[in-house]
Structure formats: C-alpha cells, structure tokens
Amino acid sequence: MNRKGMFFRFAVAAILVAGLTLNAGVTQADGIVALANGSGHIHVGSPPELRTFAFTAQMDSEGTSRGQWELINRSLDRRAHGNVDCLSVSGNVATVGGQVTEIDPSTPPNFVVGNFVLFQVIDNGQGPDTPDEISLTFFFPTGSPNPGCTGFGVFANIPVEHGNITVH
After folding, report:
1. Per-position b or e across 42-59, b if 16+ CB within 10 A of its CB
2. How far apart are CA 12 and CA 10, in angstroms?
3. What is d(CA 29, CA 31) in angstroms, rounded to the nearest whole number?
4. Which residues contact 61 (CB under 8 A, 6 or more apart)?
5. pTM for this one?
6. For residue 129, what pLDDT is reported?
7. Would you say residue 2 has pLDDT above 60?
8. Contact criterion met (CB below 8 Å) for 100 and 111
9. E strand or H helix at 128, and its extent?
10. C-alpha span between 27 and 35 (Å, rounded)
11. Among candidates 73, 69, 87, 72, which has minimal Cα distance to 14?
C-alpha cells in the first residue's frame, strides 16, 4: 500500500476513534445534548470525482460544540482537516461548521488554513434502501464572519456510499 493510502486509513481511523472516545457513554446527563458522526465516500461532478469524509461533532448543554472533520478529494489529491465549533441538530439532520486547521497540499487563495467550512448530513437510518446523505463542504473566505450552523434549511442531498451517518 502506498503512503497516501496508509495515511488516509490512519487519518480516518484516528478521527473515528476520537469520535467514539468523545461519544462513549455520553448521555444528556453528561451535558451532551447533540451528537453527529460518520464517514464514507461520495461521488461529485461530471465525470464523478471520488471524495472521502469522516467527522465527529458534539454540543454540550451550554451550547459549546467540539469535534473534528476530514475531507479527501481524490481527484485533486487534496486533504483538508479541521475543528468543529458549531453543531445544529434538528431531528435526523445535522449542520456542522468549523475552521480549517490543515490543507495538504496548500491551495491558496481559495482554500487556506483559517477558512470557515460548513456541511450538512442526514441520518436516514440503517440499511441500503435509503442511504444517508451529505452536502458539499462550503468553504468561506478567511476573515469572513462565521455564519454559524442555523438558519440554512436542509441542503444535504448527496447519497453516502460505503459509510454511515449517525445523528442524535
């Protein structure tokens, strides 16, 4: 296996382990009021480009959100990683936002460390009949106001392949 493949598997495993650690034994009594996590693949564009994602997010009763996310655009051979600083959950839909902390390779001026990102997921339950869904990841310019995670409506519409989304 090449280095990129090994790195990708390690990165996704690390994010998922972190998510399981954050979520292990967490209940509302622990102060956590919202959780969302998942990983998988999607195809975007024409011709279809393979992208891989993983994320974990939680919000406590004081409204503080934390977690991390990773996105790999296979066709461009780019990886972006960041922290979660907002999470909004409504039923089976979660909107997640945060800042980019790493981009490899760096691609200024469009996508740089410090950009705010926003994406949304839908947990459609278990089974292949109705796959979970995710949106594209929206990158906001560095220095623009943080749009937060509310007031956007439902915009996730890309079926998740070989993965799972969980929203609580």
Report:
1. beeeeeeeebbbbbbbbb
2. 6
3. 5
4. 28, 31, 32, 33
5. 0.81
6. 85
7. no
8. yes
9. none
10. 10
11. 69
